[in-house]
Amino acid sequence: MAGIAETTRGALAGGVTTLVDMPYDNPLPLDRPERLAEKTAAIAEHAHTDMALYGTATRETGTAEMRALIEGGVCAFKISSFESSPTRFPRIGADLMLDMMEVLAETDVPLGLHNEDQEIVRARMAEAARRRA
Q1: What is the rounded CA–CA span in Å between residue 93 and residue 128?
Q2: What is the pTM of this model?
Q3: Which of 40, 46, 43 is closest to 5 using CA atoms?
Q4: CA distance 104 to 89
Q5: Could you give phi then psi for residue 5, rounded to 5 degrees?
Q6: Which of 30, 106, 109, 124 fits a disulfide with 23 by CB distance 3.0 to 4.6 angstroms?
Q7: Can you list the positions of beta strands (E) in the chain?
Q8: Nearest to 42 by CA among 58, 59, 30, 57
Q9: How much is the CA Rg of the chain, to the nearest whole Å?
Q10: What's CA 117's distance to the chain center, in Å?
Q11: Is there a contact between 1 and 26 (Cβ–Cβ < 8 Å)?
């Protein structure tokens, strides 16, 4: 978990006492309890500030691990509807998005969504590239 000590030390020097760790910057997604355990151990060892942890779901895990992540201390979940990177920001389909909402509806845990339509964005990017050419 490279960077926890330096990042939290710098934040604290600037007066920030709590940071939120995103679920894809590990580099493996925080989508299962064993990764949460690794992250919390690294935070306990290296952090100079409090840290809140966001979890996620992936195509691989679906919603199966969400309750365990919540029990382990995850305070929110974050997903993206646009795949800018297959590991850092994988696209979560509408079916899994709905499944996640149904799980979280039973809790007070929020779901954050980077909600860009992949087809529209890709089409507009291609159009802009053609205009520049």
Answers
A1: 26
A2: 0.85
A3: 46
A4: 20
A5: -60, -50
A6: 30
A7: 18-21, 50-55, 76-80, 111-114
A8: 30
A9: 17
A10: 18
A11: yes
Contact assessment for residue 47 and residue 25, using Cβ atoms and an 8 Å cutoff: no
C-alpha 79: how far from chain center: 6
Q: Shortest CA distance to 80 belongs to which of 127, 109, 114, 53?
A: 114
Beta bridge partners of 50: 18
Beta bridge partners of 44: none
Question: Helices marked H in 55-117 — which ranges?
Answer: 66-71, 94-104
Cα 85 to Cα 95: distance, rounded to the nearest angstrom? 20
Amino acid, single-letter form, for residue 109 = V
Per-residue pLDDT tens digits of the chain, which is 133 residues long: 668 999 999 999 999 999 998 888 667 899 999 999 999 999 999 999 999 999 999 999 999 999 999 999 999 999 988 888 877 778 899 999 999 999 999 999 999 998 888 889 889 999 999 999 8
Whole-angstrom CA distances from 96 to 92, 107, 109, 125 are 6, 17, 17, 26
Identify any residues that bridge with 54 across adjacent strands, giving them in sequence order: 76
Strand partners, 66: none
Residue type, 98: L
